[in-house]
Structures are given as structure tokens and as C-alpha cells.
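Form 7-S
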Amino acid sequence: MAKSLTKIWLGGLKRLISIQAKHARDVKRNAARPVRPAGKLSAKLKPVKPATTLRSPAKREAPRPGARESRVRPRAAAWASGSWTRSFHSAPVAPGRLVNHLQYGLYVPAGAASAPMPLVVMLHGCKQSIDEFAEGTRMNLLADRYGFAVVYPEQSKHVHAHRCWHWYDSSDAAGGAEARAVVSLVDELVAEHGFDGERIYLAGLSAGAGLATLLATRYPERFAAVAFHSGPAFGEARSGIAAMDVMRRGMRHDPVVLIDEAVDVAAYPGVPAIVIHGDADHVVAPANAEQLTTQFLRLNGLVDAAGERIAGEEREERKAGVVMRDYVRGGRRVVRLCRVQALGHAWSGGDDAVPFHSSKGPDASALIWEFFRYQRRAVKSRETESIAAGAASGAA
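Output:
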């Protein structure tokens, strides 16, 4: 029975993305042409000169023994000036696996930083590689300009034939293990490279956005802010079949009730969130964006259990086919929803030459970094946490 359900899930997923399949094939035929920096990055961004040699960041440590490291540059890094390293992380072993290797690509801007760099975690969608995701989003160019590092975890084809993250299955054998592996990778990179633990940000596209939701609800203390692009709402899907239903229609139940069932909202520390979605998305219905926004309004203490706003204020702006809705508290933007007219299931303002990225709409990467850069989360050291835990147990 499980095998049949798996076949149904994979077949359904293929049907969902068949709308863009022909476009993807056509794009790949032309993928060999040189990639040029596009003019729609941001009005503030300056052109970056193509780099012909790989530069290593200052004081970079040698890879740990046994790690496989590749210096092959993706096209996205070919016209960025920092270093791109492919490697794998030995994550905590999941049930039923002897090893749990998480492949990833790490981009670090060139030059010595005067202070610890922020780190942006980018989670790709189904049928994407990390090279395509880096190229299509152009996040590495923003990293060059603003001085942050970017890590791209990559789902294995051995785990899912289409490289989908199991965002709907929080068990330790599926999505729970994937979320734990990403957190373990982030912790190791912070320790190894000295990235700023108070400025770790998380962004995902489609299934990657689904996993980002799981991470933000399970490990909120790790991330200063989160971004969801074309992502599903959280809490209703428990299987592949249910996941497809949520993607096609949105959730059938109250999003606030579902988030209250999944998370202890009273104890939740809050995570600022930006949600970006195309109004012409036929893979993940736009209703998901509204529901996901409501859920993070609840998690950030802006609405009550009935969904009524109890704090902050709402500001809305409509311009050039984009609806931007901000929820502000104390002069600080806490949740933002961006709805883009005529955009399908693709990264807004991205590179048309890469599947699941579109030049339509505002530059999502620039919007996301603009939201992230003002967010910071105070982090307790491991030693402090251990002392506090010991004191609590002693008092008990």
C-alpha cells in the first residue's frame, strides 16, 4: 500500500509541474550560452566584473578530514567575485540510514570581513540543483555587495527522485531528519567559519519553503528571520497526497488552529517572516500565501487564537502589479506579504534562463535581503545553555 501511495504522490507531483516542464526543457537546450548579469537585480546594485580565478576567503580553514570538496564554479559564481565550494556534511543519522550526508554549496564573498558575516540558508525547490538555484536567484551577487555568506543545502536524489524536501512529514525518518541535518550544517559552518550566529537567515522556494517552515517552527532560536517563496501553508498535510491537496487549493482548516496545534505559541519566541507568491501560480495556489502569512502573524503575537489582530498595524501598498502588505509593530516590520500579478510558480525577478525562475515581478532576492538585514536574534552560547539547564534540573 505504501508503495502505491508513493507512486501516486510522484505521479501527482509530475502532473503539478507539467505546466512548466516544456519551458524547462527548452531552457536547458540554451543553457550553454554565457550567462550575463541581468539589469533587474536592483536599482542599487552595481555591475560585478566577471571573475576568472577562484579566490579563497581570508583565514579559511582547511576542510575537515574525509570531506569531499569541489572547486568547480557554477555559472552563477562565474560572474561573482567570491569563492564557491561544494562539499558534504555528515549530519546526525536518521532512522533506517547508516549515514546521513547532506551535500551543500557554500558561497563566501572575497576579501577579509571586518566583523563576522551573516549567513543566508537557501533551500531549493523540487527538480532543482543548488547550482541552478544559485544562478536563478542571483543571491551570490547580493552577497558580494552586502557582505554575507550563502549556503545551499541540496536534497539527494537517493532520498527523493525529484530532489523534493519532505516538508509535510515531520517524522525523524523524513522531514524531521532533513530539518535536523540543515541545523547541524548551519551550526558546523558557524563554528568553522565564524559566521555571525545572531544573523542566520533562512529562505526557501516551493518545497524548500515548506522545509523552511518546519525549521522555523522547530528551531526558531537558530534563525533571525525567514523567507517563503511560492511555499505551502503549514500543519495540515501529513502525507504526499494531502500535500498535493494543500498545494492545489490551500488548507481546508483554519490556519490559526493548525499552527496552535503544531506549536506552543505562548512559548514561541517569534520569527519575522516575508512571504512572496505569484498570483498566477498553478502549482502552489496563492491561497497558501495568505494562510502562511496568518500563521506567522500568530507566531509573532500579532493575532489571537481567533485570527483577530491584537498588536501592531497593517500597511498596504499597490504598485506595478505588486501588492505589498506589511505588519508593523513598534516601527519594526515583523511580517510582510508580497503578491505578484501574472507570476507563476517561479522565483520573482530571477533569471529566465533557469527553470522555475522568472524575470516577471520585483527582484525577490533583493526584497528578501532588504527584509533580513534589519533582523537580528540574540543567541545564547552552548555553555550558557548547559549551565542554565543544569541549574534548572538542580532546582527541580
